[in-house]
C-alpha cells in the first residue's frame, strides 16, 4: 500500500509517547518486558537486526520510488481530503505544506529510528 498507510508505526500515532524514533515502545507493555531480559531473545533480536538492517534501511529508497509513482494519486487524495497543512485529524501530528514534505519527514524519522536501533540493539 501507499507509504502513508504505515503512519502509526512510523511516528504518527495518536499516543504521543509512541511517536519518537527512540525507545523500545513494546518493552514496557504487558509481559513483553520479560523478553528483553532473556539472553536468547536478546541474541535473536541482534541476529535479526544484523541480517535485515540493510533491507530495512532501504525503506527510504522505496519511499522515493513510491512517492514518484503515487504523485497523481496523492494529488487526488488531497483534493478529496484537504488534510495538508492541517493537524485536525487525530493521526496528523504535523501540518505539511506538500506531499513531498510529508514523505521527507517520514524518511527522516526512519533514518533516526535506524540510527537509534544501531546504538541500542545490544541493550
Please give a structural write-up.
This protein is mainly alpha-helical and 123 residues long. 50% of the residues lie in helices and 0% in strands. The protein contains four helices and no strands. α2 packs antiparallel against α4 (99-120). The chain is globular. The model has no long low-confidence stretch (mean pLDDT 84).
Task: Provide a brief overview of the structure.
This protein is an all-alpha fold and 123 residues long.
Name the descriptors.
single chain, 123 residues, mainly alpha
Please outline the helices and strands.
Blueprint: H1 39-57, H2 59-69, H3 71-80, H4 99-120
Strand content: under 5%
User: Ends: how far apart?
Assistant: 33 Å
The topology string of helices and strands comes to HHHH
Please tally the helical runs, counting DSSP H or I stretches of 4 or more residues: 4
Give the overall pLDDT as a whole number.
84
Radius of gyration: 17 Å
**What is the number of strand segments?**
0
Supply the helix-strand structural class: mainly alpha
Estimated helix fraction: 40-55%
Which of globular, elongated, flat, extended, rod-shaped describes the shape? globular
**Major sheet characteristics:** none
Segments where pLDDT lies below 50 for 5+ residues? none
